[in-house]
Every structure is written in C-alpha cells, then in structure tokens.
Design goal:
Layout (H helix, E strand, L loop, with lengths): L7 E7 L2 E11 L5 E4 L1 H9 L5 E8 L4 E7 L2 H14 L21 H10 L2 E7 L2 E2 L5 E7 L5 E10 L1
Antiparallel strand pairs: 1-2, 2-9, 3-8, 4-6, 4-9, 5-8, 6-7
Length: about 160
C-alpha cells in the first residue's frame, strides 16, 4: 500500500459546497489482485468534514478498476473466474501485436477486463459516513500487476 508521502489532498469551498480532492498510491503484489481501499477513501472523506454529499473514487489507469463488492475470498475467486471466462488471456489481440501497437506489455486482456468493470464508483455520504453496508468494500481490481497505481478521490458536499 502507499504511504502518506504518496498522498496529496486539496480542500476548497465555494458557496457552502466543499470539495476535497485526494490522490493516493496503492501497490499491487501480483498480476491479478483485489486490494481493499475502503480505509483510504474514508480518510479522504474525513479530511473535508463533508456531512452530506457524494464521493467519487477512480483509478488513474486503464488496466485496473475500482468497484464495490464484498471482500471475501470465495466471491473474489468467482469474480476472477467470470472475468477469465469473458476475456481470454491467450487470445490474439491487436493491442498485443507489435506490428499494430506500440505497447510492449502485451496487456490487452487487462484493458478489456478493466473496461468491463469500470474505472470508478460513486457513493453517497449521509451524516459524514459512506453509504456502504457492513459487508461492502471499495476494491481496486488489479489486472496487470505488480505495479504502483494511483487512485483519485473527490468528495463533494456540505
């Protein structure tokens, strides 16, 4: 995970509306991995004293996703199996062909998986609390690791 040196926060306020922007780093340790980033998103919320509003969290990369799910190994295994079934790692993708692409990573499957899940989530804030039930988590889904990733969080509200 990223440390405090990898985090930037900016708070602004206009006409009663507060906006908090924070970017933090997350490091994956394997090619595919789910990393719980709920605490970092909550930290961004707490830094702005927003009691009612919206939190938007998105990864700043095209080969990983941010999603809401239960952080349970069996469910994450099922999600990985579903993604493997939808996007074949070994298929012949133009993105992986050096004659057609300047990408040297051969990571077309990672781009396609991330596109299916999306790059961000929006969550409500009520009474200064993220609207997640007790079993939900905000996860960064890594499809092309290990790598350092940046996640941007924007908190809007009053």
């Amino acid at each position: 995970m990223g440390d405090d040196a990898d985090m930037t926060t900016m708070l602004s306020q206009r006409d009663g509306m507060k906006v908090v922007k924070q970017t933090f780093a997350v490091s994956s340790e394997s090619h595919r991995q789910a990393i719980d980033i709920t605490s970092q998103v909550r930290d961004a919320l707490q830094s702005g004293e927003v009691h009612s509003g919206l939190v938007i969290a998105n990864c700043l990369h095209t080969t990983c996703s941010v999603l809401i799910a239960q952080n349970r190994p069996a469910l994450l295994d099922e999600l990985a199996g579903m993604m493997n079934g939808l996007v074949d790692e070994e298929a012949s993708y133009k993105h992986n062909d050096p004659r057609l692409s300047d990408c040297e990573r051969g990571n077309a499957a990672a781009h396609l998986r991330a596109s299916l899940l999306g790059h961000g989530v929006a969550l409500g804030i009520t009474d200064g609390t993220l609207l997640l039930d007790g079993t939900e988590a905000i996860l960064l889904a890594e499809f092309d690791g290990p790598r350092e990733r940046r996640v941007h969080v924007q908190v809007l509200g009053v």
